[in-house]
Amino acid sequence: MCLAIPVQIKSIEDQVAKCKVGEGETYLDASLMLLADEVEIGDYLIVHAGFALRKLDPKEAEETLKILRDMVELTEAERNKACNA
């Protein structure tokens, strides 16, 4: 099973977007050739297997990223609780 997360476009060259993943320093290249929407630097995308599937509304992207951050925090809290028990 794969989980697609929002990525933000940082640069575009020849139908390939360099995108930032999350809040760290991880980047990926995403082909824009299957995307119907016009995109620009700063836009958010959903990417799977190296292809941009769709452009995301910034609000939707931020809400999704917040949910993912909350899930990570809960998982870490549960792990810490189990280790300290």
From TrEMBL:
GO terms for molecular function: carbon dioxide binding; iron ion binding. InterPro entries: Hydgase_assmbl_chp_CS (IPR019812), Hydrogenase_HupF/HypC (IPR001109). One of its GO terms (biological process) is protein maturation. Belongs to the HupF/HypC family. NCBIfam families: hypC_hupF. This is Hydrogenase assembly chaperone hypC/hupF. It comes from Maridesulfovibrio salexigens (strain ATCC 14822 / DSM 2638 / NCIMB 8403 / VKM B-1763).
